[in-house]
Amino acid sequence: MALVDEQQVHACLAGVVDPLTEAPLLSHTTLRGITPLTLEDGPAVRVHLTFPYPLAGALGYWQRTLREALASVVAPEQLQLTLDWRIEPQQPQGQLAPLQSIANIIAVASGKGGVGKSTTAVNLALALQAEGARVGMLDADIYGPSLGLLLGVEEGTRPEVVNENTFVPVTAHGLPLMSMALLTTDRTPMVWRGPMASGALQQMLTQTRWPALDYLIVDMPPGTGDIALTLSQQVPLAGAVVVTTPQDLALLDARKGIEMFRRVEVPVLGIVENMSIHICSACGHAEPIFGSGGGLRIAEHYEVPMLGALPLALAIREDADSGCPTVAANPESPEALVYRDLARSLAARLACRSGAAEAPLITILDD
User: Fold this and answer.
1) How far apart are CA 179 and CA 160, in angstroms?
2) CATH of the domain at 30
3) H-type helices in 223-311, by residue range?
4) Which domain holds residue 252?
5) Domain count, the chain
6) Is residue 239 located within the same domain as residue 185?
7) Are residues 303 and 201 in the same domain?
8) Is 258 exposed, middle or buried (0-12, 13-18, 19+ CB in 10 A)?
9) Residue 109 resides in a domain
10) 119 lies in a domain?
11) Residues 72 and 143 in one domain
């Protein structure tokens, strides 16, 4: 009985395009094995692909897509398809050394306050976790830390201190978290000058016993002032996400945020447009009350990806205020699924930011 020709399998896979990267799938995935099998009902094959980004929520899509792509070579029911992922560290900006236990640090920033940056950051972190990644969070907004509230950390919770100078992060919704809010109270305003605030952040980052993480999401302070600029220079960032709303004022400030990251050679992985459209809960009428298309215009101008657009939804605000963000509170809701799509797109863009990967490894195994 003739076996499936592995070269035919490879040729079929070579024509598949990853919609997240708009590049051929085999340019950034690793084809770990094409194993011809002999079955009573005819030729069969086992194929093992490893993606460079987490995709738990897209496994069904890829199973269907790859089975269809290989249908001319092997019947879908006779294809044993194994899909997994392995997240590699990306080189941070300049000569900064990455942290030992953290593969990639991603900044979530905005040019101004009030655009939903922190809410986006926590839902993004939870979405990456739901996709199968190991994720932690650092609240870099020294003067207005909010991640403890957004993640439902009980007031008065303090991180454990070991060896007199190392913090053990608090865990909330499965996310290791470190924030100035865990070291002070909401009645203790920070009155530090810029260098003191920057030093405090460096201590929280480097003196926290982080577990092994694929991504550390950093909720940056709003704006592009001295603190935000200093943090962008001192924290070994793999990339940044800029959050904006469609209105002209927010777009103007978003441009400043992009320019700041470019100045310190931090790649901008994409734009997230928050509050892009309002859908009336009574009649279903959709209206872009803050304008439309602004995020896309900025993305096109700076030639960076438009990662996604989030609605102005009451549920997102209510879930955040309750300490259980939307991705955790209502994981199958339309809003949560948008965050999941955004997380996969972000992770894929980060994994492929340096261009095409090396030629895929093909291993032929004898069954």
Assistant:
1) 13
2) 3.30.300
3) 226-234, 248-263, 294-302
4) 102-331
5) 2
6) yes
7) yes
8) buried
9) yes
10) yes
11) no
Q: Which of 208, 130, 131 is nearest to 176 (CA)?
A: 208
Alpha-carbon dihedral 230, 215, 315, 59, rounded to 10 degrees: 150
User: Is 74 found in the same domain as 22?
Assistant: yes
Residue 95: which residues within 8 A CB-CB, separation 6 or more? none
Q: Do 33 and 131 have their domain in common?
A: no
Contact 136, 248 (CB under 8 A): no
Taking only Cα atoms into account, the Rg of the chain, rounded to an integer number of angstroms, comes to 22
Q: Assign 365 a pLDDT band (cuts: 50, 70, 90).
A: very low
- pLDDT, tens digit, 9 for 90 and up, residues 270-304: 999 988 877 777 777 777 777 777 788 888 888 99
Same domain flag for 118 and 28:
no
Please give the DSSP secondary-structure letter assigned to residue 180.
G
How confident is residue 196, by pLDDT bands cut at 50, 70 and 90?
A: low
Query: Residue 191: is it exposed, middle or buried by C-beta count within 10 angstroms (0-12/13-18/19+)?
Result: exposed
CB 244 within 8 A of CB 110: yes
Token digits for 103? 């593969």
Q: First CA to last CA across the chain, in angstroms?
A: 15
Q: Is the pLDDT of residue 328 over 80?
A: yes
Q: How far is CA 235 from CA 59, 72, 114, 136, 267, in A?
A: 33, 50, 24, 15, 13
Closest CA to 311 of 332, 337, 283: 337
In a shared domain, residues 21 and 138? no
Residue located via tokens 């948008």: 338
Same domain, 217 and 108: yes
